[in-house]
Each structure stands twice: as structure tokens, then as C-alpha cells.
Amino acid sequence: MKIDFSIVYLQEFELFLGKVIGNIWATRKYEALKSFKLMIVQPMNAELEKTGDPIVAVDTVGSGPGEIVYYITASESVIPLPVDMAPVDASIVGIVDTINTEKSNKNKP
Hints:
This protein has strands at about 15-25, 35-45, 55-60, 70-75, 90-95, 100, 105. By secondary structure, the chain is mostly beta strands.
């Protein structure tokens, strides 16, 4: 019996923390984004302190206002979408339950 193993190349992606602070209602969207929500995300650090200006991110996981999320930016932000290319600068890819750091142990607010 011959077993064929595919080679998987893993790329490193930089993930960022943020808090969903709102959503955007768009009556017209790029076709590939019609089934996704657009959320306003406040970038944060592990201590849940603001680290920059809010951004708009495509929600690929069903997050809502007030939730702590992690997101990706740049060309990698199209990876969670069901298309090869889309005009996306940031995508929410996970909802955070707990943050553990050496300085503190914070549960999701």
C-alpha cells in the first residue's frame, strides 16, 4: 500500500487583538463580501488598552459589538474568504474567550 502525503507549507501570519465597537451597514458591497458583516474594531494590546485608531474589518466568524476578537491585516485578510481576491484590508478570524499574560489574568470583559 502506498501512502501519499501532501506537503503543507505554513506561513506565519501576524494576528492582532481588538474590540468590536460597532458595525457598518452598506446597501451596496463588493459581490464577494455580500454574505459578511463589516465591523468597526478598536485595536488593543493584551492588557486591553487601545493601541491605535479604529479600523473596518470583514467579520468571518460572527462576532458582535463588545467582543474581543483577533484579526489579520494586509493581503492575508482575504484568506478566510471564499474567493481568491477581494478589496479587504482586515478580517476578523476569531473571538477571544480569555487572555492570559505574565502581568495579569483577564477574562473577556
